[in-house]
Specification:
Length: about 325
């Protein structure tokens, strides 16, 4: 059942975080639903601009609607990840999305506010909620690439002003994480002091942590042993998810780790079966492995086992 992102946030706030997982294809869709059903967790499906154009934006919608029928007990929201104004408006008008992200964080402050305000106005008229971003995360996220010298962390005073003036419903904060497989190189980590300061200023307001993949060393090593050439780097330690959740981080975005699972499964499968060319055998392994990965993430997020309580909470 597709529900509002806001309802999921209200139930989770301060207790656990909802996993927001990016998907692009059929196998990820099946693995995502299976994993969340296996761990009885509510979840958010994230669709990026790139995912919408990978085949056709209607294809993902159709797969999600069908998965909803195959897994009638699932409770989830559908979210546009890193939208520009055009994509956000398109998703609002489609009537399919629970929430959209407008990422105008690369614009000057006042432009970011003005752009976010326009999206909020249209979204709220359709009962859709809006995630906005303030500050700049590093790394590469499809069409967005931010080098280390462009990164700037969210300032708590500015965050309060931004939320008040833009009218957004949740805020993606730059707190030291970055997108992609190449994250922390040394002793860097999540800036909990920033999350804490923002929560003090806006208690009860949902915060979003982007760039939350862990980039497990084991996964990178297996990929490289099967012919890959990933440099790899330390990501976010998943044992920190709950600490962030208690400070108001209600949505945690994870994409890269799922891609690593895909890469590992397919590299290993074809290395072990060089005579094979069929897509279904590795596809089956991938769906099972993706589901396993979702189960593990949900355990760290604290969303595992919350499904019945969420169902009661939203009264459906
Ligand atoms: P990762 O690249 O760390 O998975 O982050 C994904 C993300 O934040 C999507 O918005």
């Amino acid at each position: 059942m597709i529900v509002s992102t806001n309802e999921l946030f209200k139930h989770a706030y301060g207790k656990y975080a909802i996993g927001a997982y990016n998907i692009n294809n059929l196998e990820q869709t099946m693995g995502l639903f299976r994993g969340n059903m296996d761990s009885k967790a509510p979840f958010i499906i994230q669709i990026s601009k790139g995912a919408r154009s990978y085949t056709d934006k209607r294809m993902l919608e159709a797969m999600i609607r069908t998965a909803d029928q195959i897994f009638p007990d699932a409770i989830f929201a559908v979210h546009l990840d890193h939208g520009d104004e055009e994509a956000a408006m398109d998703c609002i008008n489609s009537g399919f999305y629970s929430s959209v992200m407008i990422d105008a964080s690369m614009k000057p402050y006042e432009d970011n506010i003005a752009t976010t305000q326009r999206v909020v106005k249209a979204a709220h008229a359709s009962k859709i909620t809006v995630e906005a971003e303030l500050g700049q995360l590093g790394g590469v996220e499809e069409h967005i690439s931010v080098s280390e010298d462009q990164v700037h962390l969210t300032e708590p005073d500015q965050a309060e002003d931004f939320v008040k003036r833009s009218g957004c419903d949740s805020l993606a904060c730059a707190i030291g994480t970055s997108h992609g497989a190449y994250k922390f190189s040394g002793a860097q980590g999540v800036h909990f002091e920033i999350i804490e300061a923002i929560q003090k200023k806006m208690p009860g307001f949902p915060l979003v942590m982007h760039g939350s993949s862990s980039v497990p060393k084991d996964e990178v090593d297996r990929i490289n042993a099967a012919g890959g050439k990933l440099k790899g780097a330390k990501g976010v330690d998943a044992t920190q998810f709950l600490k962030a959740a208690k400070l108001g981080v209600t949505k945690i975005n994870i994409d890269t780790d799922g891609r690593l699972v895909w890469c590992r499964v397919h590299r290993e499968y074809f290395k072990e079966h060089p005579e094979n060319f069929d897509l279904r055998p590795p596809g089956k392994v991938f769906m099972a492995e993706f589901a396993k990965y979702i189960v593990e993430k949900n355990r760290y997020l604290g969303s595992a086992g919350q499904l019945d309580a969420v169902r009661k909470f939203i009264g459906k």
